[in-house]
Amino acid sequence: MKFVSFIEHNDYEGESWRFWLQLDENEAALNKLQEAIKEQEYSLDLSKTLSETEVDVLVDNSRSGYMAFEHKVKGKFSMPENYSERDYDDKPFYKGGIKDFFK
Fold first, then answer.
1. pLDDT tens across 68-97, in order?
2. Which among 5, 81, 90, 94 has the fewest CB atoms less than 10 Å away?
3. Residue 102: DSSP 8-state
4. What would the mean pLDDT of 58-70 be, rounded to a whole number?
């Protein structure tokens, strides 16, 4: 299984967190996500992948602050309908919310 890096740059907490997202079976949806989050506080790199073993090492050895800096997220990704990050109350990925879109 391969994983890609999704980084949330959180100015409020002054931290950045990496969520290793399952790429397998999620390629099309993650491509849509990459396009939707351009010029926001998130970045998604689909060009570099890590194996599950490599991700496990990073997660197991992660430093932490407000929350751990490295996370592994497995499952099937569903892009939220009417995605918008314009309004504070409508930030579905805020503080690790990306995990909620994997089932």
1. 999 999 999 998 777 766 554 667 888 999
2. 81
3. B
4. 97
HEC per residue, 2-48: EEEEEEEEECCCCEEEEEEEECCCCHHHHHHHHHHCCCCCEEEEEEE
Q: Is the pLDDT score of 50 beyond 60? A: yes
Look up residue 64 and give its DSSP letter: B
Q: Distance between CA atoms of 64 and 71, rounded to whole angstroms?
A: 11
For β-strands 70-73 and 15-22, DSSP reports them as parallel
Task: Name the domain count of the chain.
Answer: 1
Amino acid type, 74? K
Q: Which residue has the higher pLDDT, 27 or 92?
A: 27
Please give the order of strands across the beta sheet that includes 42-51.
42-51, 2-10, 15-22, 70-73
44 in Cβ contact with 10 (< 8 Å): no
| Full domain range(s) for residue 86 | 2-101
Determine phi and psi for 91, rounding to 5 degrees. -110, 85
